[in-house]
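On clarity, I found the account of how folds are encoded harder to follow than it need be. What matters is that the chain and its backbone geometry are given together, residue for residue. I therefore recommend that a typical entry be quoted early in the introduction. An entry of this sort, consisting of the sequence and the corresponding backbone structure tokens, reads as follows:
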Amino acid sequence: MTKRTRYSPEVNEKRPGQWLVGRSVVVEIQGSDKPALIAEIVLLHIVGDST
């Protein structure tokens, strides 16, 4: 069985010190009509002084 994974990151600054990181992941299996997995992962990174 052959698998292929596509990974597409995207980064956007929401506000100063806040980074929205989105990732799309698609896992395909050879010979299958449909992907085995489609996922969207979203993270918000906040950097800077926490006080």
User: Anything to note?
Assistant: Residues 3-46 form one domain.
